[in-house]
Amino acid sequence: MGEDGTLGDLQDKVCVVIGGGSIAPGWGIGKAIAVSYARQGAKVAVADANLAAAQETADLVSAEGAGAIAVGADCTDEAAIRALIDRTMAQFGRIDVLHNNVGIGKAGDPEATTPDDWRRIADANITALHISALAALPHMKAQRSGVILTTSTIAAIRHIGYSHLPYGVTKAAAIQFSRLMAIEYASYGIRANTIVVGIMDTPRVRVTLTGAYGGDEEAMLARRHRQPPLGTMGNAWDIANAAVFLASDKARYITGTELVVDGGLTATTRM
Ligand SMILES: NC(=O)c1ccc[n+]([C@@H]2O[C@H](COP(=O)([O-])OP(=O)(O)OC[C@H]3O[C@@H](n4cnc5c(N)ncnc54)[C@H](O)[C@@H]3O)[C@@H](O)[C@H]2O)c1
What we know:
Elements: E1 14-18, H1 29-39, E2 43-48, H2 51-63, E3 68-72, H3 78-92, E4 97-100, H4 115-143, E5 146-153, H5 165-185, E6 190-197, H6 203-208, H7 217-226, H8 236-247, E7 257-261
Parallel strand pairs: 1-2, 1-4, 2-3, 4-5, 5-6, 6-7
This protein binds nicotinamide-adenine-dinucleotide.
Nicotinamide-adenine-dinucleotide is lined by residues 19, 21-23, 28-30, 48-50, 53, 74-76, 101-104, 124, 151, 153, 197, 199-200, 202-205.
């Protein structure tokens, strides 16, 4: 219930956010998504390979007055993801939203990318989507409702100005995974959509991308701010707001598609 007494858009829904921590202090996208789901009335199971990061987000969810659990789980680990879904069912009794937010990559010269890099990145960005769906779908089918959301990137549909090959390719597969699952499970009332994220200002970009832009963090941030037509990078809340909408019944007729949240960037040639 909001402060004004109105119900939130996700009132009493149960959401699972995989990759719900943040790689460094501040607001990563999964962390903002989990807290935004809670602010709209949802209970949230926060999973992350880094249990401390999951716990930090779960504490923020609890501080919103919402039910929360934190689970340490690698998205590529079938047993751990099954345990996450089992724990969510035991604690909250249903699963309305499964949000796959993990994204890893290796920026740099494509020729320095090894087959092992590809396997590791594809496992986390693609195979993990299937692993979590396998665990959650039986419950969603039994409920005859559910929402599967995936966080992708404009690197899945454009070259973004620096080399990020396996990331872009695997995140493109994530978009198609979501589209095809939307069709496969539409008859159960299950929707699946992807958020295509633009150039954002999150803790992760400072940690992982400064090198890809030449090593100067301030110059990297300034260059990224100049790119989107709206004149600035977006932030984690811009993505969380889109996620709340797609997770909610207000998006009940939206499935098998993407919501691009990029300040207009992919409509230009400014990459
Ligand atoms: N930040 C951006 O500019 C940007 C742009 C486009 C897309 N995205 C996408 O948004 C999503 C979140 O990005 P972010 O910037 O908040 O990143 P982040 O790294 O801060 O958050 C992701 C979380 O995932 C966790 N994680 C990593 N590997 C995992 C694994 N194998 N299993 C479980 N958890 C794992 C990390 O510990 C971290 O807490 C990613 O899918 C990313 O590809 C981000």
